[in-house]
Amino acid sequence: MACPESLACQDHNLSNSIFDNIPKIEGRPNYTVDIERFIGAPGAFVFREPKASDLFPRPEVEKMLKIAFPEFPAQMLQILMIMARCYVTQSGDGEINPARRFAQLARDRSDIYLYTVGEFARAFPIDIEAAVDEIPND
Predict the structure, then answer these.
(1) Is 70 exceeded by the pLDDT of residue 137?
(2) Distances from the Cα of 111 to the Cα of 35, 114, 122, 125, angstroms
(3) pLDDT of residue 10
């Protein structure tokens, strides 16, 4: 069966392509940030490993956060949005907006927020500035 003329098909036919020789890697397991010591009861945030697309902000979320939390600098919002996109919803969360909830946590309990950011960065080291510096902002 012949492949249709398309970019995907052309890539498929390049058997010596470097892309064909790159092995896939397993994703890291979810990471749990235990916050019991802060709240005096069992509690934790669970995050999945960030994907490349998670490093780039969603304009509508960024706009909402800038309006609701004008005191937060751009770098803080970037980190917050990445964490929110990687947050694994837990039973009992209901219909939440993780970006708004983490922003509110940063405002109300910076100790828990900063601890969570540190743990997230330790589990999933990302040079956010290097990743997004070359991308123009609109």
Answers:
(1) no
(2) 10, 5, 17, 20
(3) 52
Q: What topology is assigned to 26-132 in CATH?
A: rbstp2171 (3.30.2220)
Domain ranges of the chain: 26-132
Percentage of the residues of the chain whose pLDDT score is greater than 70? 80
The angle formed by the CA atoms of residues 44, 45 and 50, to the nearest 5 degrees, is: 150
Residue 87 β-bridge partners: 47
Q: Which residue has the higher pLDDT, 11 or 39?
A: 39
Distances (CA, A) of 88 to 34, 44, 45, 84: 14, 11, 8, 9
Global pTM? 0.75
Q: Which of 67, 65, 70 shows the shortest CA–CA distance to 83?
A: 65
Q: How far apart, in whole angstroms, are the C-alpha atoms of residue 24 and residue 85?
A: 23
DSSP state at residue 19: G
Q: Encoding tokens for residue 19? A: 């892309």
User: Which one-letter amino acid corresponds to residue 87?
Assistant: Y
For residue 89 the two structure tokens come to 């919803």
